[in-house]
Design a protein that fits this description.
The chain is mainly beta and 273 residues long. It has two domains: 104 residues, no CATH class; 136 residues, no CATH class. The chain contains two helices and 23 strands. The strands form three sheets. It has an eleven-stranded mixed beta sheet with strand order 6-7-3-10-12-14-16-22-18-21-20, with no helix packed on it. The protein has a ten-stranded mixed beta sheet with strand order 2-5-9-4-11-13-15-17-23-19. A two-stranded parallel ribbon has the order 1-8. It is globular.
Length: 273
């Protein structure tokens, strides 16, 4: 019979295990399905997505409709274990005309010998405000003109052809951002372990501030760049007389700033890790 003292010692272990995923063995069995939704969104509306394991892609398109295709993926040591897990992968919806909010629900209990992820593929109005948060996986954004907040912990944050204000953060991964235009809202790109790469038009008006701890800063050939401070670890400069703040920061990695027409020439970010 377990003594009271032993029960007290075991309690923290039990509490720790509840809600944790314990991956035991080779999870070679894989079962998937697709969860699809379409929502109307009013002008200037917001899209929020919160995920734990998987990828988030958001593409800006014409129109006023949000189209979501979510791949739900269950893995297990056996096919039956994966099949049993799949229907337990839930996605919570909180929807109004002004906001579409989706979040991957955490499966309660201890998961042994199984794992799961959700990959969100979203087509959204270009001008929508987008706020996406992930934990283990990449975030990719394309063709958006509204404000963007993108965050993950283990994975890359990547943006292509964005024109609004951007806040992109990760801890273990790179941040790669291509701006097709720069407006009046700030752009903040931060990581801890990884490189930060930014491309923007030569005609953009921006006030650049870049800093690194372990790494270097490289700036491409801009025609109208006024550098007020430059060292190996810090840069302050104004592009075309200055404008919205563009802040780039990493701890372990390099910072690269390039004119947009030299996007193809940007180095592989893995060299800056």
């Amino acid at each position: 019979m377990m003594t009271a003292a032993r029960r007290l010692l075991m309690a923290p272990i039990v509490l720790f295990l509840i809600g944790c995923d314990l991956h035991v063995g080779n999870l070679s069995a894989r079962v998937t399905d697709e969860w699809t939704r379409t929502y109307p969104l009013s002008a200037g509306g917001e899209i929020r997505i919160e995920n734990t394991n998987g990828r988030i892609d958001v593409e800006g398109v014409d129109g006023s409709t949000v189209e979501v295709r979510a791949e739900r993926i269950a893995r297990g040591a056996t096919e039956q274990a994966a099949r049993d897990l799949l229907p337990r992968i839930g996605i919570k919806e909180d929807v109004s005309p002004a906001r579409v909010s989706l979040s991957t629900e955490r499966i309660s209990g201890v998961l042994i010998g199984v794992a799961y992820e959700v990959r969100y593929h979203v087509r959204a109005p270009r001008k929508a405000a987008v706020n996406v948060r992930n934990t283990n996986g990449e975030v990719a954004l394309t063709g958006l003109t509204g404000p963007v907040v993108a965050q993950t912990t283990n994975g890359r944050v990547k943006g292509d052809a964005l024109t609004g204000g951007v806040e992109a953060r990760t801890t273990n991964g790179s941040v790669q951002m291509d701006l097709s235009g720069a407006g009046s809202d700030p752009v903040r790109l931060h990581t801890t372990n990884g490189a930060v790469t930014l491309t923007l038009p030569e005609t953009a008006k921006a006030t650049l501030s870049a800093s690194v701890t372990n790494g270097g800063i490289s700036v491409g050939e801009f025609q109208n760049l006024d550098v007020s401070e430059k060292s190996r670890r810090h840069l302050e400069a104004k592009l075309n007389g200055g404008g919205a703040l563009v802040e780039l920061e990493t701890t372990n990695g390099g910072v690269r700033i390039r004119p947009r027409n030299s996007l193809a020439e940007a180095p592989d970010d893995r060299r800056d890790r």
